[in-house]
Structure formats: structure tokens, C-alpha cells
Amino acid sequence: IYVYSSSELGIQEEDEEDDEVEELELDCGKVVPLEFSMATFPHLQVLSQPWNISWASEADLELPMTVNQISRGLARNRTSWFFHNLASLHWRKIGDGQRALDCAKRSLHFASRSFKDVPLLNLGVMLQRAQCSAEAAILLHSAVDHAPHRPQGHFVLANVYAVLGDYNRSIGCYDNALGLDPDWTQVKSTKHAVLCRKKLEQLFLQLNSFLQDIMTQLKDYSSVYERWLKTQEEVLKHKAPLPSPPLSSLSMFSSYK
Q1: I need a surface site. Which of 37, 68, 140, 150 has the fewest CB within 10 A?
Q2: What pTM was computed for the model?
Q3: What's the pLDDT at 56?
Q4: Which residues are within 8 A (CB) of 85 and not within 5 positions of it... i.e. 6 or more apart?
Q5: 58-66 mean pLDDT
Q6: What is the number of other CB atoms lying within 10 angstroms of the CB of residue 237?
Q7: Do 67 and 144 form a contact (C-beta atoms < 8 A)?
Q8: Which of 177, 24, 9 is nearest to 85 (CA)?
Q9: What keywords is this UniProt entry annotated with (predicted)?
Q10: DSSP code of 147?
Q11: 3-state helix, strand, coil in the chain (%, to 5)
């Protein structure tokens, strides 16, 4: 998710710290206030209101710096989008969605156009995890617009479209990612899984349509059968009994015998 390493950005990493050193506070809201920013998509309600959601910790996230290194980096440069983004990833790893969101919004606010794709990608992933797929697609489209040459944005956007059930767009985004990185095996396997899911859903829809046709035919047959039974009842009800033959006819028949 970092997309750019600290060395690519010319940021000097500190030496590893003693494990016994007390962990410094890492609070982006205290580092720099952020009342309002058009760069943070304030028209999206999910980004303009506090998050009252539980956030599962993402223990598999690997950070290139320790918490103290990130905290010191923010102390030296309060407007560093890079350190605010790392702080956001730290809180995602811990499982604090609100603090992760606060840091990501500051990262997006301070990032120059050349690097805005990184916090946009981070925020897009967060919204997707929060089951706000439509809003996530908006941010990820913006990330792709800022960095169309980086495959990560195309890949995450493809995953969002797959969740939304828009498989054609999803496959197109996977193809874009593979066009930029043909050897990315995760994209290949995910695309294959989405294609399988698309085929299964198409088969399910066909089967459902077939069953609906059968149900319609059965209802029609049942209706016709009920009308036929009623007609038979009416016929039997109004059918006149045959008259008994007269006694003279019976005597004549006996004489002939």
C-alpha cells in the first residue's frame, strides 16, 4: 500500500531502536488540526462523519518504520503526507479505524499531486473494508487518474468492481493491472476467480430462469386442470338420468324370446 518507499522519496530512516524504549504517542489529530479540506472528498458522507464502526486489526500489514520512527518523523515535519500515511497504516494494523481515517485524510490533504495516489489507495481500501464499495470506487478512480502507470490502483479498483458485481469493469481493471505488470501472479489468480464467479452467476441466472418457466407452466396447467374439474362437475350435476323402459316393451321382448 505504500507504493513509494522512503528511499524513493529521499527520506532518511532512523536506526532501529531499543525494544525497551517507551512507545511515543502517535496522534495525527494532535500533530496538526484539519477542520476542512476539499482534497479529502467532504461530499462523501462516510468521510465527513465520525466512524462508529468496529475495525478488525490488520496484523499482516508490514510497516517499514517503527511507531517511534513515524512519530519522530511527524514531529520533524508536521505536514509530511508520507508519515501521516504510515501513521494511518499503523492504526489499521492496531485496529483503530477512526485514527487510521484521521491520519489518511491528513496524508491526502498534504500530498502533492504526484503522490496523491498513495493516500487515495489507502482510503479506498479502508472504505472497501468498511463495506462502502461505491465510495471506495470513487476514491480509487481518482487514484488511478493520478497514477495510471501504477498497477496497484487498477488492481484494488478491480476488486471493488467485483464486489459490486460489475464483472466487465472488474476484468477490464485486472487487464489494466496486468498490462502494467504482466508477472503479477496475484492479479492473474484473482482475475481467474472472478471469471469463474461470473460464469457461475450466469449459469445460476439461466437455471433460475428455466425454473421460473417451469413454475409458470405448472401454474398454467394447474389452472387449466381446475377449470376442467369444475366443468366435469357441472356436466355430471346437470346430466339427466335415462328413463326406465315401459312394462309393455319388456313383455314384448319376452314374447319374442
Answers
A1: 37
A2: 0.74
A3: 87
A4: 2, 103, 104, 107, 111, 118, 119, 122
A5: 89
A6: 7
A7: no
A8: 9
A9: Repeat, TPR repeat
A10: -
A11: 65, 0, 35
